[in-house]
Amino acid sequence: MPGSAWLNNNANPFVPRPTSMIVIKSADGSEVNLENLKKAKEEAERIAKQEAERKAKEEEEERQTLKAEEEEKARIAEEERLQHEILKAEKQRQKEEEQARLLKEEEDAAAKAEAEEEEEGEVIRINTARPSEPLPKRRPGPLDLSTVAVKTNLPPPIPSALATARIIEDLGRISYPEGVQSPKVKLNVNAKDGNFR
Q1: 110 domain residue, yes or no
Q2: Which of 59, 166, 168, 180 can pair with 176 through a Cys bridge, CB separation 3.0 to 4.6 Å?
């Protein structure tokens, strides 16, 4: 067989040697423990999962809060609408009651007027038809003032307060009616020529 010269027929069969542990070293030359790396990875995954769960919980709480706010706004709007409708219905009822009261008063007044007319025996009618021709405007004649001169026994008018007013020289000589107070003396200490306050 070609190339058999290179093989040793007396050699033991090939059995791989047991290998020693493979050691991974960091850049500073210290041995890297793979278990620590696995634990760190698991811890990072656990933290990421907790963070995702926390975010999901916060988002759900925010959705619930927004939903509750929207429901509250809708409830308040509905209450306002119902109050508006109640007020509108109350105003309408009051208006109808007022109209019914006025109608009853008119009917009572008409019945009373009819009863009075029947008692009097006469029926008064008012012609509300417009005249076919407009009436000419009447202009008043000149005033007759001759009768005014005859009535001279009228008393003269009472003079106004300004016509009978006098200058006050001394405030101390003025007497006031009961219940009326005089001005404060301190205000008019240095007043000159009747310029009192």
Answers
A1: no
A2: 180
| Structural domain range at position 66 | 33-98
Judge contact between 32 and 24, C-beta under 8 A.
yes
Walk along the chain (197 residues) and give the pLDDT tens digit of each residue.
555 567 777 888 877 777 766 777 878 888 877 787 788 888 889 999 999 999 999 999 999 999 999 999 999 999 999 999 999 999 999 999 999 999 999 888 888 887 777 666 555 677 777 766 777 778 888 877 776 655 566 677 777 777 777 777 777 777 888 888 877 778 777 777 667 66
Output the pTM of the full model.
Answer: 0.31
Phi, psi values for residue 165, rounded to 5°:
-70, 145
* One-letter identity of residue 60: E
3-state secondary structure of 25: strand
Q: Report the alpha-carbon distance of residue 142 to residue 31 in Å, rounded.
A: 138
Task: Please state, in angstroms and rounded to a whole number, the distance separating the CA atoms of residues 141 and 83.
Answer: 67
Residue 47 lies in a domain: yes
